[in-house]
Amino acid sequence: MALYSEKVMDHFLNPRNVGVIEDANGIGEVGNAKCGDIMKMYLKIEDDIIQDVKFETFGCGSAIASSSMATELIKGKPVAQARELTNKAVAEALDGLPDYKMHCSVLAEEAIHSALEDYEKRKNNS
Ligand code: FES
After folding, report:
1. Are 48 and 90 in contact (CB under 8 A)?
2. What is the CATH number of domain 6-125?
3. pLDDT value, residue 92
4. How far is the centre of ligand 1, averaged over its atoms, from the C-alpha of 66 (Å)?
5. In angstroms, rounded to a whole number, what is the distance separating the alpha carbons of residues 94 and 91?
6. Would you state the torsion angle of the CA atoms of residues 26, 120, 118, 33, taken in this order, to the nearest 10 degrees?
7. Whose C-alpha lies nearest to ligand 1, atom 2?
């Protein structure tokens, strides 16, 4: 069996939603100290809906595929639904990741949660 699913390869080679949102109202950046990979998520939220989401990932192929899939899973969704996104859901949507690569999907979950926290903070301060 191939190490990586076709979906992982597809999202790694053609990642969706790569880039920066200049007027993002939620930004989250997380890293994994062990492998050194870094992921940054930008959210544009209006009326409690994720209107747009983009990411920049400096990391392994699984981290790029996980970021790409995670953005696809929350785009156009209500904030409450995005908050419930788990790394398991990201890995499942990618048709699985090798065990030792599961932490890459955790990074995607953490990046989205961190961007959502930033959004809530900004909302409460405005
Ligand atoms: Fe660290 Fe993939 S090896 S995120």
Report:
1. no
2. 3.90.1010.10
3. 98
4. 10
5. 5
6. -120
7. 104
For residue 21, what pLDDT band results from cuts at 50, 70 and 90?
very high
Domain boundaries, the chain: 6-125
* pLDDT exceeds cutoff 90 at 22: yes
Average of per-residue pLDDT across 73-88: 98
Rounded CA-CA distance 108/101 in Å is: 12
Nearest CA to ligand 1 atom 1: 35
Please state, in angstroms and rounded to a whole number, the distance separating the CA atoms of residues 96 and 94.
5
Is pLDDT of 100 > 70? yes
Task: Return the bridge partners of 40, or none.
Answer: 29, 56
